């Protein structure tokens, strides 16, 4: 199987990226999967806390366990795509960020007032989730674009029982939030990509004031 190696402009990758819902089972080489994960790892995150973690699923028995955590077409997709990537948002990184800020306060590198943020990072579950999930989603977007650059197709899916997904790949209880599954591979023979539909551009932006 040949993979794109020539440079690919990021705007071209954005324009070419589509969600594919029928895959053929050709495996994706480990070095390509690692390249996708490296791209995801370059994503920005608030205060550089980098909450994303990924589990790559390739073996038939693990694919079957992943499929059991969903239904319908998603179950078929994860069993036929070359690989599926379980995306996780790490609450441990909220704790690590709290530790880092606390150390900065002790060293006089951050004002004592930041202790309030430390407390929120440790105790406010809604704040912890609102921190780690959006940053993980950004990393998922980077992964999707990197796959497009390599000539691969993807589908980001969230219609899973997150707890069952985490159990299927042995994620420690309580430490991680489910952020979706990305199927990666090559479209099935005969797959026809539907035309992309988007709202008119002028509907989604304003300058200076909303609606202007």
From TrEMBL:
Query: Domain of life, per the record?
Result: Bacteria
Spell out the coiled coil positions from the record. Answer: none
Q: Do you know which InterPro entries this protein is assigned to?
A: Nitroreductase, Nitroreductase-like, Nitroreductase/BluB
Asked if the keyword Transmembrane helix belongs to this entry, the reply reads: no
Identify this protein by name: Nitroreductase
Q: Which PANTHER family match?
A: IODOTYROSINE DEIODINASE 1, NADPH NITROREDUCTASE
- Record-linked Pfam families: Nitroreductase
Task: Please list the residue ranges annotated as the Nitroreductase domain.
Answer: 14-186
Per UniProt, which keywords does this protein have? Flavoprotein, FMN, Oxidoreductase
